[in-house]
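Purpose: get a first structural picture of the assembly so the mutagenesis plan has something to point at.
Setup: two entries, given in the order below. No constraints added.
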Amino acid sequence: MNWYWIDRYEEFVSGKRARSVKVITRAEEHLQDHYPYHPVMPMSLMIEGLAQTAGLLIHEAKNFEKKVILGKVPKLKLTTTEQVPGDVLYYDVEVDYIHDEGSMVSVSVMKNNKQIGTGTLVFAHLGEGFESKELYGPEDLQDLIRGFGVYDVGVDADGNPLVDPRMPKK
Amino acid sequence: MALSQDEIFEKVRGVLVDALAVDEDEVELESTLVDDLGAESIDLLDIVFQLEKAFEIKIDRSELVPVDALNDPAYVQEGKLTEAGMEMLRKALPYANLDAFAKNPVVQNLAKVLTVKDLVHIVDTKVNAQ
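Result (C-alpha cells, whole complex):
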C-alpha cells in the first residue's frame, strides 16, 4: 500500500512552485477512529501532503536522479486543527533553494479559500549508496507524477508545457 | 552596507535559535554547533539555507566541510586525515581552530569542530566583501 496524501496537482512550475489539492473524505480509514464519530484529519498527514507536493517538485527539478527525503520541518504554523470530511485543502509550495545536497521550500495551506497554515520544509538529497530497490526509481516517480496530473498542468521554468518522457514523441 | 561582527553575530544567533530550538544565551561565539548546541547533519543544511536567506549570500558546503577532498586517499587513510590531509584542511578552513581535532583527526569528528565563530567569520567574509 502506498500512502498518497494529495489527490492531484493544480499547478506545477518546474523547479519553482506547485499547488496540489487534497479532498478529505469520510471513507478514509483512519477517520473511522480519529476520532470515533468525530472525524478530524491528523495534522501529521497534512505535513506529509505538503512534503509530497514539494518532494515531487524537487524530484522533477533534479531529473529524478536523487532520492529526495523530508529531513526537517523547521517551522509550521496551523491556525486550525479541525480539518473534516468535505473540506478541500490546497497545498502551495514555493522553492527557496534547490542545492545539490538539499532543498528548502516555503509552504502554505489553504482551506475553502482561507489560509490556515504556513511554514518551511527542508529536504535532504541522497545520492550514491541509496539506490536501494525498495525506494522509488526514476520511472516509478515519472509514473507517480503522471498519476497526479503533473504532465497535464505542468510547465517548465519558461512556461512551456512539460513533456511526458514516457509518451512516444510526436 | 557593511555589518559589524556584533551585528552579524546577533543575526547568526537568531538563525541558530530558530534552527536548533536553543535559548539565546546558550549561543556563544565559542559554542560548537554539534556538541554544545546539539546540531545534526540535517540542521547544518537548514542553517546554511537560513544564513543564505538572512544575509542574501551563497555559502558553498565545502566552506563548512571540504567533502570532496575527504574522498581522496592522499588525504584520508583508515578514516583519519593524513599529514597532507591536515594541511589541506587548514587551507580549506583557514578560520577554524583545528588544534584539538589534529590530535585525533578522525574524519567523522570533523563536523564537530565548527563553532558559532566560524559561521560569523564565513558570513563576515561574504557580506563585507560585497
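Helices of chain A lie at 43-61, 138-147, 150-153.
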